[in-house]
Amino acid sequence: QHESMTKASLQCVKCSNPSTIAGAEGKNVAYCDGCYGEMLTHKFRSALGKRRVFKDGAAKEALVVSDGSSSSVFLLGQIRDAIQLNPHQRLVMQPTIVTIVSSVTEGVLARVAEKESLVVHLAAVMRPSEEKVLDKGRDAEEEIRGLAQLLSSCKSPTSRDEITRILKERLILRLAAELQLSTVLIADTADDLARLSLSALCIGRGGQISEMTGGVEKRKGLPTIVRPLKEIRSKEIAMGNRMFGWEKEVIYVEEDEMKKPMGYSIHKATEDFIETLHTEGFQATVSTVLSTSSKVHPDVNPSSLLCTLCLRTFSKDMVGLCPPCQSIMDEIPDWSGIAHLVQ
Amino acid sequence: IEMTETSLTLEFTGGSEFLVGNQKIHQVSIAGEELTIRSVLLWLKETLLKNCDRIDLLLEGEAVRPGVLVLVNDTDWELLDEERTLLKNGDRVTFISTLHGG
C-alpha cells in the first residue's frame, strides 16, 4: 500500500479489496481494478438493455461507427465482449463496423485502411448523392483535398468545427442508408455530449440538444441513432481501455495535427470550460449539463419540417435551413461541394 | 554534497506519448528531497518537455492539464494526495491523456 494514502474511501465500494480508481463523481466512491471494469461493463449493458434497442423484435443488424478514438475503441470492445457471452446472457446483435477517418493529413486514410476492413473518409460525403460513399472512389487524395479546402475556407474555427460535425452526421446517415441498416451505434460519451450541449447552445441550437444528446434518437424516415456510452465519462473510457487491454487499438493522428494551429473555436472553448470546472471540484458538471439538455425541447409538432442540412426540427415554421445552419453556411464562401446535401 | 536522487518510471499514454518522442516509458532519475508529483511536473518542463511545442496538452502552468489522469503505481492520484503525493525510489507515475485520439 502507498504511504500517502490519507484520503477517504480506501476500500473498494463493491468488495473488500483496496481501491485503486476513484469513481467519476469523486473519491468518495472508489473501486479496485476488477470491480471498476465490471462496473463499466454493467453500465454499457444496461444502457442498451434499458432502452430495449435490440429487443421486442427489433432488427439485430446495426451500423457501429468508429473513428479510432478511445471512445470508439471502448464501444467496439464492449460490443465484441457482449456478443461472445454464453447464449443466455449474450447481446444478440449483428454489427457492421465502419471506421470514419476525418484527418486530412496525407497517408492517414491509407494507414487506417490497412488495419480496418470498412473505412471511409469524411470527404466521401461530398460525393454526389447517386454515388456510394463505401466505394473506393476515383481519387481519394483529391477528394480529401476538396474537403480540406472547404474547411480551410471557413471564416471562423467555429464554423469549421461545426460543419465538420454536421458532415460527419450526414455521412453516418448515408452509410446506414447504403448498408440498409436502420440502427446506428455511435461512441459519444457523457463528456462529448455535455460539450456538444454547450456548443450547440452557443450557436443557436438550443432546441435541438435533447435530440442530439439523447440515448436513442428516432426521426421519421431516418435510422435510429443510439448512444450507449452516454452515461460513461471520458476518464472511465481511458481507464477502461487500459484495464481491458484495448489501448493499443486507439488510432492517433494528433502527432501530425498537433503542430498545426487549430484555431480556438466554440467547440474547443466548451471543452476547456467543462474540463476546468471538473478540475476545480465541480464534479457534477457533466451530469448536470446532460440532465438539463434532456429537458430542453423546441416548440415543434409532428408535421414540423427537418432542416435540410442538419436534418433536425427547429421550429414550427422553419423551412429549408434552420437559422444556426444558415449562419454556418454563410461562413463558407463556396459551398458548392456540399450543395447536394441541402437539396 | 550528495544530492538525493529518486529513480522513477514515467509512463505516457492516451496520446501523451507523442509529446515525449513517441516513447511510452521513460526511466528517469530526479534530484531532490521529498519528491512529489509536482516536483516531477516541474522537472518535466525542464527536461523531457523542454522543447515541446504542445506542452499545453499535458501541462497547464505547473499543474497537470484538466483531462489528464495520473496514476502512481497504478493507483488513481485522486485516492492519494494528487500533486502532493510523495514518491519513492522505484515508483511508477503514469500520465493518461483523455483529450484526443482518432
From TrEMBL, chain A:
GO cellular component: cytosol
One biological process term in Gene Ontology: tRNA wobble position uridine thiolation
InterPro entries tied to this protein: CTU2, Rossmann-like_a/b/a_fold
Keywords: Cytoplasm, tRNA processing
UniProt GO molecular function: sulfurtransferase activity; tRNA binding
Record-linked HAMAP family: CTU2
Record's protein name: Cytoplasmic tRNA 2-thiolation protein 2
Protein species of origin: Pristionchus mayeri
Automatic annotation (TrEMBL), chain B:
Localization annotation: Cytoplasm
Keywords from the UniProt entry: Cytoplasm, Isopeptide bond, tRNA processing, Ubl conjugation pathway
Pfam families cross-referenced by the UniProt entry: Urm1
Biological process, per Gene Ontology: tRNA thio-modification
GO cellular component term, pick one: cytoplasm
Domain of life of the organism encoding this protein: Eukaryota
Pathway noted in the entry: tRNA modification; 5-methoxycarbonylmethyl-2-thiouridine-tRNA biosynthesis
InterPro entries named in the record: Beta-grasp_dom_sf (IPR012675), Mopterin_synth/thiamin_S_b (IPR016155), Urm1 (IPR015221)
Family as reported in the entry's similarity comment: Belongs to the URM1 family.
Descriptive protein name: Ubiquitin-related modifier 1
